[in-house]
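Usage

Read records sequentially. Each one opens with the input sequence:
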Amino acid sequence: MSKTLKIGVVGFSRNQFNKKAARKILKDAFEALQQKHPDKNIEIVSGYTNSGVPKIAYELAQTFQYTTVGFSAKQALRVKSGVFPVDKTIIIGEKFGDESNDFVRHIDGLIRVGGGKQSRHEVALFKQVNLGRPIHLLLKEFEVDWYGD
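and closes with the structure output:
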């Protein structure tokens, strides 16, 4: 069996952002992954919530037939939007952020689409964990318009 490539996706988990732009960014990124790693099983690992960038990432992952992984704290089980019906779940800690250190150690690459404090913190942690590796090959960051307060 071929190696599994675990790609983390972080970004806005609330819905007041340019979803069309985010969807295009992720679709392009997933197509690039498919072309670059045709021999690998790809897992899309995100925050488990059924809203925002995680929801878009999971929906697209399903169309690409990638495995979906919900990686979050127990707090995700109590959010209004609910959780996305992922293939696998990893729950660590009680509140959002408790899982961040484990999340960045679990993934092989990271895509950030917008996002707030936690997304940017996870990018910083990912950079620390991957010191000395070609980070430009492992990390892709994109900004999209935020419409919220």
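Summary fields computed downstream for this record:
- Strands lie at 4-11, 41-46, 67-72, 88-91, 109-113, 139-142.
- The mean pLDDT is 92.
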